Amino acid sequence: MPNGVIYKGYWINGQMEGKAKLIFPDGDLYIGTFKDNKFEGEGIRRFPNSDIYRGQYHDGYQNGCGVFISVEERWRYVGQWLKGKIHGKGLCIWLDGTVYDGDVRVRVKVVG
Q1: 6-109 has which fold?
Q2: Extents of the domains making up the chain
Q3: pLDDT tens-digit profile of 33-66?
Q4: Most distant CA pair in the chain: distance in Å?
Q5: Measuring CA to CA, which residue among 80, 92, 88 is closest to residue 105?
Q6: What is the pTM of this model?
Protein backbone atom coordinates (compact mmCIF):
# COMPACT_ATOMS: atom_id res chain seq x y z
CA MET A 1 0.00 0.00 0.00
CA PRO A 2 1.21 3.54 -0.66
CA ASN A 3 2.33 5.54 2.37
CA GLY A 4 -0.54 6.65 4.58
CA VAL A 5 -3.19 4.46 2.94
CA ILE A 6 -5.08 2.24 5.38
CA TYR A 7 -6.83 -0.92 4.18
CA LYS A 8 -9.07 -2.91 6.52
CA GLY A 9 -10.26 -6.03 4.80
CA TYR A 10 -9.38 -9.35 3.25
CA TRP A 11 -6.45 -10.26 1.02
CA ILE A 12 -6.57 -13.24 -1.32
CA ASN A 13 -3.43 -14.09 -3.28
CA GLY A 14 -2.04 -10.62 -2.59
CA GLN A 15 -5.20 -8.88 -3.90
CA MET A 16 -7.78 -6.81 -2.00
CA GLU A 17 -10.94 -8.96 -2.09
CA GLY A 18 -14.39 -8.84 -0.53
CA LYS A 19 -15.90 -6.30 1.84
CA ALA A 20 -13.41 -3.74 3.12
CA LYS A 21 -12.59 -0.16 3.98
CA LEU A 22 -9.91 1.93 2.27
CA ILE A 23 -8.79 5.27 3.72
CA PHE A 24 -6.46 7.65 1.88
CA PRO A 25 -4.31 10.32 3.59
CA ASP A 26 -6.26 13.13 1.85
CA GLY A 27 -9.51 11.98 3.51
CA ASP A 28 -10.85 10.00 0.54
CA LEU A 29 -12.72 6.97 1.89
CA TYR A 30 -14.23 3.88 0.24
CA ILE A 31 -16.37 1.31 2.04
CA GLY A 32 -17.56 -1.56 -0.07
CA THR A 33 -16.50 -4.58 -2.06
CA PHE A 34 -13.23 -5.24 -3.85
CA LYS A 35 -12.31 -7.70 -6.57
CA ASP A 36 -8.76 -8.00 -7.91
CA ASN A 37 -7.67 -4.80 -6.09
CA LYS A 38 -10.50 -2.73 -7.65
CA PHE A 39 -13.82 -1.37 -6.40
CA GLU A 40 -16.49 -3.88 -7.45
CA GLY A 41 -20.17 -4.30 -6.59
CA GLU A 42 -21.82 -2.02 -4.03
CA GLY A 43 -19.86 0.73 -2.37
CA ILE A 44 -19.84 4.16 -0.78
CA ARG A 45 -17.13 6.70 -1.50
CA ARG A 46 -16.57 9.98 0.30
CA PHE A 47 -14.23 12.28 -1.55
CA PRO A 48 -11.82 14.71 0.17
CA ASN A 49 -14.22 17.63 -0.44
CA SER A 50 -17.03 15.62 1.28
CA ASP A 51 -18.90 14.77 -1.96
CA ILE A 52 -20.44 11.29 -1.76
CA TYR A 53 -21.16 8.52 -4.24
CA ARG A 54 -23.22 5.49 -3.23
CA GLY A 55 -23.96 2.77 -5.69
CA GLN A 56 -22.55 0.19 -8.04
CA TYR A 57 -18.95 -0.20 -9.17
CA HIS A 58 -17.37 -2.31 -11.87
CA ASP A 59 -13.67 -2.65 -12.62
CA GLY A 60 -12.84 0.23 -10.26
CA TYR A 61 -15.35 2.74 -11.71
CA GLN A 62 -18.84 3.92 -10.82
CA ASN A 63 -20.91 1.78 -13.15
CA GLY A 64 -24.62 0.97 -13.11
CA CYS A 65 -27.02 2.69 -10.70
CA GLY A 66 -25.76 5.25 -8.23
CA VAL A 67 -26.38 8.42 -6.26
CA PHE A 68 -23.90 11.30 -6.24
CA ILE A 69 -24.24 14.21 -3.83
CA SER A 70 -22.13 17.32 -4.42
CA VAL A 71 -21.84 19.03 -1.07
CA GLU A 72 -19.88 22.03 -2.38
CA GLU A 73 -21.95 22.68 -5.51
CA ARG A 74 -25.22 21.68 -3.83
CA TRP A 75 -26.72 19.26 -6.34
CA ARG A 76 -27.36 15.55 -6.56
CA TYR A 77 -27.71 12.99 -9.29
CA VAL A 78 -29.61 9.71 -9.12
CA GLY A 79 -29.23 7.44 -12.10
CA GLN A 80 -27.01 5.53 -14.47
CA TRP A 81 -23.20 5.59 -14.64
CA LEU A 82 -20.75 4.18 -17.16
CA LYS A 83 -17.01 3.84 -16.50
CA GLY A 84 -16.97 6.52 -13.80
CA LYS A 85 -19.13 9.03 -15.67
CA ILE A 86 -22.76 10.08 -15.49
CA HIS A 87 -24.39 8.42 -18.48
CA GLY A 88 -27.92 7.32 -19.31
CA LYS A 89 -31.25 7.81 -17.54
CA GLY A 90 -31.00 10.01 -14.48
CA LEU A 91 -32.40 12.73 -12.28
CA CYS A 92 -30.42 15.87 -11.35
CA ILE A 93 -31.70 18.07 -8.54
CA TRP A 94 -30.19 21.44 -7.59
CA LEU A 95 -30.66 23.24 -4.29
CA ASP A 96 -32.68 26.03 -5.96
CA GLY A 97 -35.32 23.44 -6.93
CA THR A 98 -34.26 23.03 -10.56
CA VAL A 99 -34.78 19.43 -11.73
CA TYR A 100 -33.65 17.59 -14.83
CA ASP A 101 -35.13 14.14 -15.45
CA GLY A 102 -34.01 12.38 -18.61
CA ASP A 103 -31.15 10.90 -20.55
CA VAL A 104 -27.66 12.24 -20.22
CA ARG A 105 -26.12 11.83 -23.67
CA VAL A 106 -22.81 13.55 -22.97
CA ARG A 107 -20.80 11.59 -20.46
CA VAL A 108 -19.60 13.96 -17.77
CA LYS A 109 -16.96 12.77 -15.34
CA VAL A 110 -17.74 13.71 -11.76
CA VAL A 111 -14.65 14.30 -9.69
CA GLY A 112 -15.09 14.73 -5.96
Answers
A1: 2.20.110
A2: 6-109
A3: 999 999 999 999 999 999 999 999 999 999 999 9
A4: 50
A5: 88
A6: 0.88
